[in-house]
Fold this protein.
Amino acid sequence: MSEFGSKYILGSFFLALLVLFSSCNTKEGQKQQVKIAFLADIHLQDICAEFSDTDYRGVLNSETGKYYTIRTMGAQVRSTRLFNENYFAFTTALEDIAKRDIKLVVLPGDFTDDGQPMNVRALKKILKAYSKNHGIQFLLTTGNHDPVSPFTQKGGKTNFLGEDGKEQPVFSDSSMLEPSNTYALTPIITEDIKEWGYQEITDELADFGFYPRKEFFYWETPYSTYSYDNYTHRKASDEASLTKRSYHILDTNNPIPDVSYLVEPIRDTWLLAIDGNVYIPKENISNETNTASHFHRSSVGYNDVVVHKKHLVDWVKKVSREAQRRDKNLIAFSHYPIVEFNDGASEAIKSLFGSDKLQSHRIPNKEVSEIFADAGLQIHFAGHMHLNDTGVHTSAKGNTLFNIQTPSLAAYPSAYKILTLNSTHEYQVETVVLNDVPQFNSLFSLYYQEHQHLKKNQDTLIWDKDVLSSKNYKDFTNWHLNELIRFRFIPDDWPKQFVENVILKSGRELLYESTVNSNTFLTRLDAINVSISDFEEWTGLDMILDFYKIYKADELAFSEIGAHRLKQYELLCEQWQNSEEENLRSWSRIFYRSFNGAPSNNFNIDLKTGTIERLGTEKSVVSD
C-alpha cells in the first residue's frame, strides 16, 4: 500500500472517531441531546367504540355518516375534563411530536377515562400505530383514572349521547340499573365499559414500560433483586409479574400491585415511573379478600405515598444514588405533583375556600417535598391537576427539586411539554399549546340536537349554545372552562357571601371600596399608565374568570388577559392587602401570587446550581 493510501486510511479512522466522539460528547459533561415529550391526562375515550358483546353502535351523525359513542355536552361542562374532543387533541399532539422527530413520549397517568376495556384497547391501538410508523417509544404510569380501583369492578355512565339528543345509559352489568329510574333510552349492557384493575390494564399495555423489553438497556422495580451490573432481560422478566410487585396496606391480607419501574430506554437516560396511586381500605370491611369495593378511590397522591408506600422512598434513594454514581440523567415522573402548585398561595386558598375546596386536599405537604428532594430527586413531571405550573422546593439541606406540572390535553390549556437534555445537569423545557385541532367541531351537530332536546324540556341547567361557535380547539376549551366555572366551581367552591359582594360589581366599584382616592394612589396609577376609567371595563366575575385562566394556564394566560388588565388586577390586589375583610386579603394574596410564580412556559433548569431561567414570553403553538 502506498504512503498516501496508509495516511488516507489512518486519517479516515481518526475522523470517524472524532465524529463519534462529537456526537456523544460535544463538550465536557455533555452527552448526545435527548428530547422527551410528556402528554398528561389524556383521558382517552374511544369515541367510535365497537362493543364486543352488543350490536349497539352509538349515535349516528348524519353529517359524517358515522356512529359515535360520545358523552353529552352537559356531562362535559360539569366535568374538569372533556370526554370527546380530546380524542382529536391526542392524535394532533402525536402528529406534532412525529413531525418534530421526537422518539420518546411519556404519559404520566390518566391516559384513559376510567380504564374501561374499550378505552384501553383504543389507546393501545393508537400507540402501536405511532410506534410502528414513527419509531416512537411510549412509557406510561398509572393515574387515579387508570385504574379507578386496584381490581376490576363494574362500571358505566348514564350520560352517553343517544338518539334525539337524549342521554343514553351504558353499563357493564344489569345490576347497576336503578329500578326507580325511568331512563329516556333503554340502557345498553356491555362488558367493555367495566373498569379494569391493575392486572388487566398493564397486561394490555405491557409494551409501554410496565414490563421489560429486550430493547431496554435496563429495567427494574422496587422489588428487583438483580443489579445494573448483572442485568439481563430474562432476569427482569422473571421478576416482572405483578404477584412479585405488591405491598400490603393497613390490615388487608391480600397484596395490592405497585407498578413503579425504572427504565433506561436510551443509553444513559433513566426514567423513573412512580406509581403514586394509594387505595385506602374502607372501614368495617372484612380483610379476608380484597375486592374493588373494599377501597376508596385514589386521589391524594404523595401525601398518602409517604405513609402507606414507604418502600418507594427507600427505592428512590437507591435509584438516585446509582444514577449519580453511573452518571445517568434521572428524570422522575408520576401522576401526582410532588411540590406545591399554587405559587405559595395554598394557605390563603384554604383560608378563603376551605381545606376541602379548590383541590386543596391534593396539595403535597412541605414534608413530602423535603423527603423526595433529600432522597435525591431533582426533576419530576406530573399531571393530575390539569394545570400548567412549575414548583420549586429547596430542602433545609439545600437540595432542590423541580416539579413540572404538565397540562391536560382534555382541558384548558390543552398543551404538552418537551424536555430537552442538553447535558447531565442542563435541561430545557418547552410548552406546546394546541390551538388548532382538526375535526374538533365534527361532533357539534350532535350537541345541537342535545341542546334542542334540553330546550324543549325546559331544562333549567342548560349549557350555553355559543360553545358551538368556537373557532378552534383553544377557543372551545376556553368555553368549557367558563361553563365549568358557572356550573361547578362557583357554586361548589366559593363562599356565597363573597361572591355576592364581588361578582356583579365593576372594577371601579371594587377599587373605590378598597382605597382612598389619595394623591399617592393617583401617582401609582400614573406610574403604571392606568386610568380610573379602565376599571369600568370589567366586573368581579371577569376577574374570577381570569383568575381561573391564570390558575390553570399560568404564564400561558397572560397574553390572553393582556398586560394592561393584569396591571389593574395587581393594583387592586395591593389595595386589598390592607382590607379589614379577611376574605379580601386572602383573595388578594391568591390572585397576586398566581401571576408571580416560577417560569412555566419555556425555561432552562440547571440541576447543578438548582436554578431556573425563563426563556422569553412567546409560546410554541400547534396549528393546522
